[in-house]
Specification:
The protein is 52% helix and 11% strand. The chain has helices at residues 16-27, 37-43, 59-66, 124-130, 153-159, 168-174, 177-189, 195-198, 201-204, 213-224, 229-238, 242-245, 260-277, 284-291, 293-307, 311-329, 334-349, 357-362, 367-381, 384-397, 400-413, 425-432; strands at 2-3, 32-35, 52-55, 70-73, 79-84, 87-93, 107-109, 115-118, 138-141, 146-149, 161-162, 192-193. The radius of gyration is 29 Å and the shape is elongated.
């Protein structure tokens, strides 16, 4: 137990809504603490993304206290969400080891040791043992103004060290996503993983294949869209964790890391990191459209050469195949796959610069995303893509008369083939016959 004031932590730094949840649980006779990542971030002088609460009250008891303000979520790991408008305070009941389990309704593992159900409740000390990293096993009591640190997490924070609680191999088997969390925290917090926690990852990376694709999709966004995408990507490649998330991209990796696909991944992640730093909006659909652009192009060429398909049909079929492979690993919601298709098909439309085509293309809701992908292609490919990018850049900045001149210039350079007219022989014969 450490006085919070010695660590520079006070109730003023905690979300008022989180404090009100703790106070209300205390008033009803339950233990309750501010817990986990928010304390870690405060100790690192970072702004916490959210504030979580841990308590010895069961989920149904929490719901009885907060009533309509509370929503119970999750089957594998039962939680209570306390709603304050858009702000949600997550409340977890203290967990215990599975040795304390009475039946499969509260605890269950698969053959590889992965936790399928984890609702065995215990004490504060037992809950600390169930946390993943020592730096996340911190508990703050606003009432006592004390921080509980059972595994020297504060010392590890000072040393910049990430350390799993318990046997690392066993903990990764319990939940393989902990390997992804290790990488995310290393990138986000600029910390290193201690040797015992690091050693099993490469040989256990395949365990991620047993994680539901919907959960892996959510994890992929946390990894790649939080501002440290480049650093995270390099760590994922280093620990063989990128392949289970994106198996369809594996054939495009080279020893030197300089294939078009690999260069596109780095370019897209650099752009995403910069947009996050500038507090601009980001869309996962764009990131994934960029990731899979060159696999799509390869598939298109195969369909055109072997199947004799035209460009438009080849893009449609290739898009179906690539997205199917992608969604097997990560369950991408349809709202994102629809945008990915639009961005890909617009690459075809950007090539049409005559008549009314440019006007229609620019009016498309996803034009800007398609233009940004073209800019990345130009950076990687050079050649015709650079000329196409330059034309569209000029077209966007031009007034209507200048746009008309740009289109007319294209019409001269690439005139449309004249339509052949066929006379109706019957009409011709009718005209010659006497009335």
């Amino acid at each position: 137990m450490i006085k919070a004031s010695k660590l520079g932590i006070s109730a003023r730094m905690i979300s008022k809504n989180a404090l009100s949840v703790v106070e209300k649980l205390n008033r009803h006779g339950y233990e309750a603490y501010i817990v986990g990542g928010c304390l870690r971030d405060l100790l690192l002088d970072k702004k916490p993304k959210d504030f979580d609460v841990a308590t010895n009250a069961r989920p149904d008891q929490v719901q009885a206290i907060f009533q309509r303000q509370c929503r119970l979520v999750g089957r594998r790991f039962r939680l209570a969400h306390i709603m304050f408008g858009r702000d949600i305070i997550e409340v977890a009941t203290f967990r215990a080891g599975h040795d304390n389990s009475l039946n499969e309704n509260s605890a269950k593992r698969n053959d590889e040791g992965m936790l399928l159900r984890d609702n065995v409740y215990g004490t504060l000390e037992q809950d600390a043992q169930r946390r993943d990293f020592t730096v996340n096993a911190l508990y703050y009591s606003p009432k006592e103004n004390i921080v509980y640190d059972y595994f020297n997490g504060i010392e590890d924070l000072k040393a910049g060290k990430l350390r799993l609680i318990g046997d690392p191999s066993l903990r990764y088997h319990e939940d393989p996503v902990r390997m992804l969390r290790s990488v995310r925290f290393m990138a986000k917090l600029d910390m290193f993983l201690d040797k015992p926690s690091e050693e099993p990852i490469r040989r256990l990376a395949h365990l991620l294949q047993s994680i539901p694709p919907a959960r892996l999709f959510d994890e992929s966004l946390k990894l790649l869209q939080t501002g440290q995408g480049i650093k995270t990507y390099k760590l994922l490649r280093e620990y063989n964790l990128f392949e289970p998330l994106f198996p369809a991209l594996t054939p495009y990796f080279t020893e030197r890391g300089d294939s078009f696909a690999e260069r596109m991944i780095l370019t897209a992640l650099t752009s995403t990191d910069e947009r996050i730093a500038d507090k601009l909006r980001i869309n996962p659909a764009f990131l994934f459209a960029a990731f899979f652009w060159y696999p799509l192009r390869e598939k298109v060429e195969i369909l055109k050469n072997e199947g004799g398909l035209n460009n438009y049909d080849a893009y449609g079929l290739a898009g179906n195949d690539i997205l199917e492979l992608f969604c097997r690993a990560l369950a991408v919601p349809r709202r994102h796959t629809a945008v990915i298709r639009d961005i890909w098909m617009l690459q075809l439309q950007l090539m049409k610069r005559s008549g009314k085509a440019p006007e229609r293309t620019m009016a498309h809701p996803k034009f800007r995303a398609a233009f940004d992908l073209l800019a990345m292609r130009a950076e990687i490919e050079g050649g015709e893509s650079v000329e196409l990018l330059s034309w569209w850049h000029a077209y966007q900045l031009s007034n209507p008369m200048q746009r008309s001149d740009l289109v007319s210039e294209q019409d001269k350079l690439h005139p449309r083939p004249k339509k052949r007219r066929y006379r109706n022989r019957n009409n011709k014969n009718r005209a010659k016959s006497p009335s």
